[in-house]
Specification:
Blueprint: H1 6-22, H2 25-30, H3 54-61, E1 64-67, E2 70-73, H4 88-96, H5 100-105, H6 109-123, H7 133-151, H8 156-174, H9 183-199, H10 204-221, H11 233-252, H12 259-274, H13 293-302, E3 313-314, E4 319-324, E5 331-336, E6 356-360, E7 363-366, H14 379-383, E8 401-402, E9 406-407, E10 414-419, E11 426-432, E12 442-448, E13 455-459
Antiparallel strand pairs: 1-2, 3-4, 4-5, 5-6, 6-7, 8-9, 10-11, 11-12, 12-13
Helix pairs in contact: 4-7, 7-8, 7-9, 8-9, 9-10, 9-11, 11-12
């Protein structure tokens, strides 16, 4: 707890206290300007940069929902929006409504309308899980991206309920952003408010607040090398997508994107490219999971990354890469030599300092486990040092991971260097003091031959 800022603790306590108010009749009585909310002429602000999956949409249309590796047959409308025996993350995914893109790709408008209409009846007013700020943010963005398609051929009653729900949720989100957590969650909250401010008639303050705070957060969360400070390739990709979509929305409105946003897109795209293997997929450091090569390629292309302008090292984030040799025999290494993450928000950190991933051609040879679930008995096993290509001392993790999203003791002094020129032998070297309480300083050196014929490692 000593790493958590007092302001974050106070906000979390305040947020928990407010739940009682939101669940009470007082909240319904106190609401203003919502019942007859309408959307402005520029309502459909979203730009679909990443089309859905038609096959997934056809499965959804017959009530088959699949998230985080678990499939359930719920029906249309679902037998329950709060199914049992699945993780909270699975239920969150159900309430994100990002799957509207899949239904749209499959041309299943009637089924999409039925699902949204049923949700409006069940959750049109406050619910602690469905209205959690994170799913609320993703839902608002999804609704305002696919709303025009969704409301075609819809009756006036459905449209009115939909408009009112957009305004109501945006108003709730304005006062319940995740300031206690920060990070990528807060960026999604603020992105949703920007969308809502462009859509909800008479609520321009959503846009002004969301945009100002989002730009401020970019200064806080993006490192000088362009990377996101949570140091997870997966979440870097998520943040990059958020910024790409936000940029597209602002350009659609005719005002253009702020220079800081444009620079953030370019910098984050270049940083993400450092973490892409020859197979086109991301390295699995920290809380990362498989992401298709096609999806990653689209992210990088939209961000304008030049394949000849990818840095060899991210000094602030603490990642370094090297490639030697050519074609199917080329050796490529990516190494993690940074701190676990921001001290106040290490929720996606693993005890993986000085771990590396090695490829020969497009084949992965040395890998990390990544992650696939947040509410699972294996959660902290996958976060542990033994689940990574890193040295374990006396069966102890190099960082004390606990409570699914917590980190206690952690490396404080971390060093990372790259020695070598554009051609010839190259050395990646690093050290960390995560075992200082055991009197051990971990040091690692990886050498790649100039022709890619040999890789040599040394741990001290």
């Amino acid at each position: 707890m000593r790493f958590v800022p007092p302001a974050a603790l106070l906000w979390r306590l305040w947020a928990r206290g407010k739940r009682v108010y939101y669940a009470s009749p007082l909240y319904e009585v106190g609401r203003v300007r919502e019942g007859d909310a309408s959307l402005a002429a520029v309502a459909w602000v979203g730009v679909e940069l990443f089309p859905g999956d038609a096959n997934a949409g056809r499965a959804l249309a017959v009530g088959q929902f699949g998230f985080v590796g678990v499939n359930l047959e719920l029906g249309v409308p679902p037998k329950s929006w709060l199914p049992k025996n699945v993780s909270a993350l699975w239920v969150f995914n159900l309430h994100y409504f990002e799957w509207l893109a899949d239904l749209r790709a499959a041309g299943k408008r009637a089924e999409a309308q039925a699902l949204v209409a049923d949700w409006l009846v069940a959750f049109g007013h406050y619910h602690p899980l469905a209205w959690h700020p994170y799913p609320t943010s993703l839902r608002l963005v999804a609704w305002l991206t696919h709303g025009k398609w969704l409301l075609e051929e819809a009756d006036a009653e459905f449209a009115k309920a939909f408009y009112a729900a957009v305004a109501r949720q945006a108003d709730y989100l304005r006062w319940n952003c995740e300031w206690d957590l920060g990070g990528n969650h807060l960026l999604k909250n603020l992105k949703a408010l920007v969308y809502a401010g462009l859509a909800v008639e008479g609520r321009r303050e959503f846009f002004e607040f969301g945009m100002a705070e989002l730009l401020r957060q970019l200064r806080v969360q993006l490192l000088a090398d362009g990377a996101h400070d949570e140091r997870s390739p997966l979440y870097m990709a998520q943040v990059l997508r958020d910024l790409l979509e936000l940029r597209a929305v602002l350009k659609k409105q005719g005002g253009g994107a702020p220079k800081m946003l444009e620079q953030a897109v370019v910098g984050l795209g270049r940083a993400l490219a450092v973490l892409v293997h020859p197979d086109g997929k991301l390295a699995l450091f920290n809380d990362s999971a498989e992401m298709s090569a096609e999806y990653v390629e689209r992210l990088l292309r939209l961000s304008g990354v030049d394949s000849d302008d990818v840095p060899e090292m991210l000094p602030q984030a603490g990642f370094v890469r090297a490639v030697r040799g050519k074609g199917d025999a080329a050796l490529s290494v990516v190494m993690d030599g940074g701190v676990v993450g921001p001290d106040s928000n290490p929720g996606h950190a693993h005890a993986d300092t000085l771990s590396f991933e090695l490829c020969c051609g497009r084949e992965r040879v040395v890998v990390n486990c990544g992650t696939y679930a947040y509410q699972h008995a294996l959660r902290n096993v996958l976060r542990g040092t033994a689940a990574h290509s890193a040295v374990v001392v006396d069966g102890v993790n190099s960082a004390e991971v606990w409570g699914s999203f917590r980190v206690g003791r952690r490396p404080r002094e971390v060093r990372l260097e790259r020695r070598g020129q554009a051609v010839g032998e190259v050395a990646l070297e690093g050290a960390h003091d995560g075992y200082r309480h055991l009197g051990v300083l971990c040091q690692r050196k990886i050498l790649l031959a100039g022709d890619g014929s040999r890789v040599q490692g040394e741990d001290v």
